[in-house]
Specification:
With 983 residues, this protein is α/β, with parallel strands linked by helices. Among the domains are: 295 residues, Alpha-Beta Plaits, CATH 3.30.70; 155 residues, Dimethylsulfoxide Reductase, domain 2 (3-Layer(aba) Sandwich), CATH 3.40.228.10; 131 residues, Beta Barrel (Barwin-like endoglucanases). Helices cover 26% and strands 19% of the residues. The protein has 30 helices and 40 strands. The strands form 10 sheets. A 7-stranded mixed beta sheet has the order 7-6-18-17-16-8-9, with helices on both faces. A 7-stranded mixed beta sheet has the order 27-22-26-23-25-24-28. Strands 3, 4, 5, 19 and 20 form a 5-stranded mixed beta sheet that branches. The protein is globular and about 95 Å long.
Length: 983
């Protein structure tokens, strides 16, 4: 059987491989790690159940379900009474690092069960990312902190209010001397008003903002370029050529959802000319996987490349002529020079359709250089607007100043609402030790984490699904947070915690929120308050874009102060936010821990990513345990050899190695990168040392599971060869001769289309499928045995022979609902059958677990329950279940159903209205979540249905067509737009 698979590209055959084992490069040493443990001793049934946080102490909560005391309004303005079986949908928001994403939350009999994007909200447009969806499991997490603690002992909110009132009297006498607030970056108008009132009450108090993943570099870059802090709003709907400099704008992260949808439209051949994407980065990212051309650089070389590009543009753009000296100051090696020349030429030709986007980890001078380029080219894709955050200084320097005051005894009272600074702060600050020296400290947290272990008072945080609040979206739109349920635990919102120092801790957040907006909008408040809550936001409140003048002289002076790249700097560390746990705050969510990383497909931990060439040079193999040293104590990591990674650098994602007492699920997973982060270099730095320790570990990666060996899988082509490829792909959708007459489907004929040109591989669909279909998580040991239960997977394939910088194509794959399904005719008990609408259905109570169907499925999309994952669930855990989907028992097979429960719900609704289901009325869970609109579902009998158009597209092909299964899911080949000068 061949070890490499063919990828159809018109006129040539390239190689398609999933990992280095298949490529034939240095092998992953999984065989040397010992045989896979037998099922009996791999994982105990009890340990598997613990993954979902079972807790008998919460069993009584299921019977205490009640809505909030305040009036909440459903999004679709249905009658407030609840009809059993009919869900309601409420508009609310998730806030990460101060910026809101508009959401719609489904409630069944008063309990939240599913999070979707708000289709009317500018930050989501109906889509949703993995992090926002995971808020549902965080809400039901029984490991959440449930009681106020004082000096490590249980206490009560009233005790805290009494102690704070006494402390506040003393602070008022001293005008707030010694009072400090360390807050999460916030855009909340209500929190902004509270900050102002606190500043007026305590004139000598100081406020600091802190985020482990701050936007300060962006704001500082705007300060350098424009003389004031601005945020840059991207409009990729106007883009023709985009250069990403460490800007992961196609990953489903906070603030990127609108850009993903706009970019998908620009990559659809049906919409006309395709835009082109260049990516310059160290580690392979989601954006890099989707780039037409990608340049890999060491992290300290990246911003110097951007300055060299600015110097090259000086000869082509008169407005940039003063930057000509930068080309000589930052000489580029041949490969980089060729790339820069081609990019410069393309940007100039694109004019208003050109965009240079810079990631938040990069230094301010690179951001300023991008502003200069975009302004000189007249880019319509980037607009400057005033920041939505109250405080734009939320980086490590701000925290360093606070720590110096704490060590110097100048801080008597510290109120912390920022997320976990003891864990997330750079190691050289030693924030935990400094916190121990503060006499009176208050920390508000969802969990008993590392910071909670050091604080005097710990206040349980209320989750957004059970509290009131407001915030601004990425464009400034005022967005409301409304609860769907009364708090599961005692706790307080940030508003109530801050109000305690004003003597108003007994005022609810709702009371304060309503009073604030009544004062802000007195003329239309009475008329519109309920509409705002029902919609989830106030329309027309986006902050307007501005056109500040670029200060070219200041940018040039700052650029000339940057030293040229040092080619002898040795190994460099590259710290990145984690796609799954972000900065660590989502580390206790099993949905995200078991979600494969979009690029590496690693689960349940992080690793030290290293390029194949660097691994050979250092004598490293996959799974080696190493010590990573940089100016302090080492970090202990496991090596993962990553194709596409820059040479002489090692990347590690932030957010693992947790040690909090109250987060049992994530404790001990992965390694902590804090020893490698320093105040002056929190993201990347030279001088890294790598020392093997002679041990090995197993990494649980999913990419090489469920093989379709040696067959046509993912198809890609270029714009120039699209016609040729369409003719070639026609062979993979043509009717096949058969001795059996085809079935007739006079009613509905359900089908799906997946456009690989639109799919970025962000994995939002996977989390949506898990949440919708009650799919259990199985743990690292079971994942390593290929027993993960995901009904939908997103495969990532490398293209070509080059392991250093291969091409990449991604492909979502679930059950394709074959017309002639191989699974159906091998099942001895008729547990899998064909419906009269073409669905391949599972009848769980017939299944006896022979697994013949899985063995006979060429797509490898069926999953088997090796354990009973739900038998010991508490009532609280069951509250997260979708009541429309059966919870499967041990010993049965399961798979994608095309969200048949949504089909049946729509059927019932339309039957009452005596009409057919219209196109677009049914959205599968994966389709609804997808930020790029890559997945389309509908009735193939409807000539006007969008899915019908996809099935008739020239790019359409059937997966494994030669087997004659006639899948109902069709794929559209990916189309790229390479630059001929770099091809």
């Amino acid at each position: 059987m061949p070890s490499l698979k063919s990828l159809p590209i018109a006129g040539q055959r390239q190689k398609l491989w999933r990992g280095l084992d298949e490529h034939g490069a240095p092998p992953a040493p999984s065989r040397e790690l010992g045989a896979a443990p037998p099922p009996d001793d791999a994982t105990s049934r009890r340990s598997v159940l613990q993954l979902l946080g079972a807790s008998a102490a919460l069993a009584s909560l299921g019977g205490c379900l009640k809505p909030p005391d305040e009036k909440i309004l459903p999004y679709t303005r249905q009658p407030p009474e609840v009809t059993p079986g009919n869900p309601l949908h409420y508009a609310t928001a998730a806030v990460i690092d101060g910026r809101a994403t508009g959401l719609l939350v489904t409630a069944n009999e008063g309990r939240p069960t599913k999070i979707e994007g708000n289709p009317d909200h500018p930050s989501s447009r109906g889509a949703v990312g993995p992090l926002e969806q995971a808020e549902l499991l965080r809400f039901y997490d029984p490991q959440r902190l449930g009681v106020v603690q004082h000096l490590g002992q249980p206490s009560a909110w009233r005790d805290f209010l009494q102690a704070t009132a006494e402390k506040a009297r003393a602070l008022r006498d001293s005008r707030g001397a010694g009072l400090r607030f360390l807050m999460e970056p916030s855009s909340s108008p209500l929190v902004g008003r509270l900050r102002q009132r606190l500043a007026d009450t305590y004139p000598q108090a100081k406020f600091s903002s802190w985020s482990a993943i701050p936007l300060q570099q962006i704001h500082d870059g705007a300060q350098l370029a424009y003389g004031a802090a601005y945020e840059i709003r991207l409009d990729l709907s106007r883009a023709r050529v985009v250069l990403s400099l460490d800007s992961d704008l196609l990953a489903a992260l906070p603030g990127t959802l609108p850009a993903m949808r706009d970019w998908a439209e620009k990559r659809d051949p049906a919409n006309g000319r395709l835009a082109r994407l260049y990516a310059v980065e160290t580690n392979l990212t989601v954006t890099g996987m989707n780039a037409d051309h990608r340049l890999r650089l060491k992290p300290t070389h990246l911003h110097r490349f951007g300055l060299a590009l600015l110097g090259r543009l000086a000869a082509q753009v008169p407005a940039l002529s003063r930057y000509a000296p930068l080309q000589q100051r930052f000489p580029l090696p041949p490969e980089s020079a060729k790339f820069a020349d081609a990019v410069a030429k393309d940007l100039v030709a694109a004019g208003r359709g050109a965009l240079v986007s810079v990631g938040p980890r990069q230094p301010p001078v690179l951001h300023a250089a991008a502003h200069a380029i975009n302004a000189a080219l007249g880019s319509a894709c980037a607009a400057a607007a005033r920041p939505v955050l109250h405080d734009t200084n939320a980086g490590p320097r701000t925290l360093e100043q606070l720590v110096e005051e704490m060590r110097g005894g100048k801080v008597d009272t510290l109120v912390i609402t920022a997320w976990n600074p003891v864990y997330a702060a750079p190691a050289d600050l030693n924030f935990g030790k400094a916190l121990s020296q503060v006499p009176y400290s208050v920390y508000r947290s969802l969990y008993l984490d590392e910071t909670a272990d050091r604080a005097a008072w710990v206040i349980p945080a209320l989750h957004p699904l059970e509290s009131w609040g407001d915030a601004r979206a990425h464009d400034g739109t005022v967005t409301f947070i409304q609860p769907l349920i009364s708090p599961l635990y005692s706790g307080a919102s940030e508003v109530e915690t801050l109000a305690a120092f004003l003597g108003e801790g007994d005022r609810t957040a709702y009371t304060q929120l309503r009073a604030f907006w009544q004062s802000q909008r007195p003329d239309d408040f009475a008329l519109n308050w309920e509409k705002w809550l029902a919609d989830g936001f106030i329309g027309g409140t986006a902050t307007p874009p501005e056109k500040p003048a670029v200060r070219h002289d200041q940018i040039l002076a700052a650029a000339m102060q940057v030293a040229p790249a040092d080619s002898s700097a040795g190994l460099e560390i590259n710290i990145v936010p984690d796609y799954r746990v972000w900065d660590g705050r989502f580390a206790n969510v099993s949905w995200l821990q078991e979600l494969p990383d979009p690029v590496t497909k690693l689960t349940w931990e992080n690793a030290a990513l290293v390029a194949p060439g660097t691994a050979r040079k250092l004598g490293l193999r996959q799974g080696d345990r190493v010590e990573l040293g940089l100016r302090g104590p080492p970090a202990h990591a496991t090596v993962l050899i990553a194709p596409g990674h820059a040479e002489d650098a090692i990347t590690a994602s932030f957010g693992y190695g947790r040690r909090g007492a109250g987060e049992a699920l994530c404790r001990g997973l992965g390694f902590d990168t804090s020893p490698l982060r320093h105040t002056d270099a929190p993201w990347f730095s030279p001088g890294l040392t790598v020392t093997p320790v002679g041990k090995r570990a197993r990494l649980a990666q999913t990419q090489e599971h469920h093989s379709m060996e040696g067959r046509l899988i993912a198809a890609t082509t270029t714009v120039e060869k699209l016609k040729e490829t369409g003719e070639e792909l026609a062979e993979n959708r043509a009717p096949q001769l058969t001795a059996y007459p085809g079935a007739a489907y006079p009613g509905y004929r359900w089908g799906m289309g997946i456009d690989l040109s639109r799919c970025t591989g962000c994995s939002s669909c996977m989390v949506a499928c898990v949440a919708e279909n009650n799919i259990p998580m199985v743990g690292k040991e079971q994942v390593a045995l290929s027993r993960e239960m995901h009904w939908l997977r997103v495969d990532r394939y490398f293209i070509g022979d080059d392991t250093g910088n291969p091409g990449v194509v991604v492909q979502p794959l679930m059950c394709v609902h074959c017309e002639y399904a191989p699974c159906e005719y091998v099942c001895p008990v008729n547990a899998t059958v064909h419906s009269d609408e073409g669905l391949n259905e599972m009848i769980y109570n017939r299944c006896v677990g022979t697994r013949y169907c899985s063995n006979n499925c060429p797509y490898k999309v069926r999953r088997f329950n090796f354990f009973s994952y739900t038998s010991d669930y508490t009532n609280t855990e069951k509250m997260a279940f979708n009541p429309d989907v059966t919870v499967r028992a041990r010993g049965v097979m399961e798979k994608c159903t095309y969200c048949v429960q949504r089909i049946e719900r729509a059927r019932i609704a339309t039957r009452l209205q005596d009409r057919r289901i219209r196109d677009g009325e049914i959205l599968t869970a994966c389709q609804q979540a997808c930020p790029s609109g890559a997945i389309v579902f509908g009735d193939l009998n409807d000539a006007n249905a969008k899915v019908r158009r996809l099935h008739e597209d020239e790019r359409r092909y059937d997966l494994l067509h030669e087997l004659g299964t006639r899948p109902r899911t069709a794929y559209l080949a990916r189309v790229t737009n390479p630059n001929p000068e770099l091809a």
